[in-house]
Write a structure and sequence with these properties.
By secondary structure, the protein is of the alpha+beta class. 34% of the residues lie in helices and 18% in strands.
């Protein structure tokens, strides 16, 4: 899920290390061609990473939870993450609630960090973001806010690390207004239930032997499925709320 072009060598190295610890079992290379939803739903999925929102709304009971990567995010329990709510720098110090009727950029309506987290936070404030621009990725959401095509976005904190590293020009035009409440991070899943324990052990061993990670990956933890299922599911994005790309 954090497989940016700039860090694909790290993804490939992780998989090679996992496969080696499984005695050479499993695909030789990471599959980047198959549609994610098709892969997540496949009973043949060897190992994949999904998001908490798809896991609790569609994949629980279909795919098997392997474990949750720990990216060592400051102030959070291992395996948990959150989003940074960003706006342009000229909005520094503004209250995020003042943006409820402005343009929210989201990577997709099936995202915990980009969609569910800000909407759940808005619901706790008795509100909702009702003008939503779908961008396709957190990276594009950040770029759209910086460029003035949207006004606010919730960017997954691990992705924000990548934006800070590889798009400092975008970061310079953005300010963090607040952070969303933490939720369980993006879980590893498999379609082969009997492999889950071996995959968990192999991932832990592989991560421990790899050099420092650009994403901050430092280990894997066992967060129960119930913790994912307990996160609220916001009302779906409606056609009336969805803004055209040129809005």
């Amino acid at each position: 899920m954090y497989d940016w072009t700039e860090v694909r060598d790290e993804t490939d190295a992780l998989w090679s290390a996992v496969r080696a610890r499984l005695g050479g079992t499993g695909p030789r290379a990471v599959d980047r061609a198959t549609d994610m939803w098709a892969a997540w739903r496949s009973p043949d999925l060897f190992l994949g990473q999904t998001c908490g929102f798809p896991y609790r709304t569609a994949l629980h009971g279909r795919a098997t939870l392997v474990g949750t990567p720990d990216y060592g995010l400051p102030g959070l329990e291992p395996g948990y993450y959150q989003s940074v709510m960003v706006a342009r720098t000229d909005e520094a110090g503004a209250d995020w609630r003042d943006f409820l009727d402005r343009r929210l950029a989201i990577n997709g309506p099936d995202s915990q960090s980009g969609w569910a987290a800000p909407q759940n936070m808005a619901a706790e404030a008795s509100g909702r973001f009702t003008r939503v621009r779908e961008t396709g990725s957190h990276r594009q959401s950040a770029e759209d806010v910086a460029a003035g095509h949207a006004d606010i976005a919730a960017i997954d904190a691990v992705t924000w690390r990548l934006v800070e590293r590889f798009r400092p020009d975008v970061v310079r035009r953005l300010t963090i207004l607040t952070r969303t409440p933490p939720t369980p991070g993006l879980p590893f899943i498999t379609g082969r239930a009997t492999l889950a324990p071996a995959l968990f052990d192999a991932l832990g061993a592989a991560i421990a032997t790899l050099p420092s990670s650009t994403t901050g990956l430092r280990g894997i933890v066992a967060i129960p499925a119930e913790a994912y299922l307990a996160v609220p599911v916001p009302a779906p994005l409606t056609d009336a709320e969805r803004l055209p790309r040129d809005a």
